[in-house]
Amino acid sequence: MASAQVRTVLGDIDPADLGVCDAHDHLFFRSPLFPGQELDDLPAAIAETTAFAQLGGQAVVQWSPLGTGRRVDALAEVSRRTGVHIVAATGLHQLAHTDPALVERVRDRLAELFVDELTVGVRANDDPDGETLPIKAGMIKVAGGFHGLDPHARYVMAAAAEAHHATGAPIGIHHELGTAVLDVLDLLCGGLGVPTKSVILGHLNRSADLRLQSEAAASGAFLAFDGPSRANHATDWRLLDSLVGLAATGHASQLLLGGDTTTAAARSATGGGPGMPYLLRRIRPQLESELGTEPAAAIFRDNPARAFSYQVR
To answer: Would you give the DSSP letter of residue 199?
Structure first.
């Protein structure tokens, strides 16, 4: 049997080679909800990735799915220019972040499209009928709603589960303000048969519900704490409490950290925000102080290597 691999924009790599990883971020992203703040500038993406690499960063997982300006061809250029491994995503976001016309174009072939982007290549210019690039996605991104799942979320998750069963690729979930976590687990894992080890629950730091975080951890899924230093969310000031508490109850091996930079202003190198380097500049030393150097290193290195690796089919 072939060994597990991490599928990056420049090809498959051994999970041991992934290195220090920002497990949830965006180098290219656009949304109708953030007009004028699009991440669409190649030099800025290179500058941000370089700043991350200068602090020891070796890999970035971009959770921008189809229809959000993910620019996978540019991701490959960033990876070549900086030496940082980059994982791209297929999948579909909430309707609020996606052109409804695009959703209608892919509705009858969504699972097939996900599988194709994971195994053959992603579509150029986010056009589901466009040229197939020789760059493959390495994960599937889907999204829940606020304290529930609407029909769009359920339909997309069903397609994501079908694509997972065909390819083995992991599924990352945007949880709106950290909610609907148990609904997603019930649907994806309970109803659609996706193993929890292939599920990454995103934005758990956006809800300070420690009981919910513990229940999610008990499922066996990976837990992504992302988007540090957002003043309008329960992030920095409770982040360490959550991480330390989950580690103390035996769930350190499921924890992931990411920057989730979604606007130009949030970038460190060009926008004045905390950006991707914040993870290693501030969060890592704090985590080392709380947990110890090696346990903290494992959260940045070993956990992403397992979360994003799979038996490529």
So the answer is: E
| Strand, coil or helix: 286 | helix
Question: Which of 73-82, 233-242, 253-262, 263-272 is predicted least confidently?
Answer: 233-242
CA distance linking residue 311 with residue 296, whole number of Å: 27
pTM above 0.85, yes or no: yes
In this structure, the number of other CB atoms found within 10 A of the CB of residue 250 comes to 10
Q: Which CATH number fits domain 12-308: 3.20.20.140, 3.20.20.70, 3.30.450.20, 3.90.1150.10?
A: 3.20.20.140
Query: Rg (Cα) of the chain, in Å, rounded?
Result: 17
Matching residue, tokens 């969060």: 283
> What is the C-alpha to C-alpha distance for residues 247 and 115, in angstroms, rounded to an integer?
35
Task: Report pLDDT for 68.
Answer: 95
Tens of pLDDT, residue by residue over 80-118, are 999 999 999 999 999 989 988 999 899 899 999 999 999
Q: How far is CA 187 from CA 110, 153, 195, 208, 214, in A?
A: 18, 10, 11, 23, 19
pLDDT digits (tens, 9 = 90+) for 169-210: 999 999 998 999 999 999 999 999 999 999 999 999 888 888
Q: Which residues, 6+ apart, have CB-to-CB distance to 111 below 8 Å?
A: 158, 159, 160, 162, 163, 166
Where are the domains positioned within the chain? 12-308
Structure tokens at 257: 């950290």
Burial class (CB in 10 A: 0-12, 13-18, 19+), 28: buried
For the chain, the residue count is 313
Model confidence at 243: pLDDT above 70: yes
Neighbours of 235 (CB within 10 A): 21
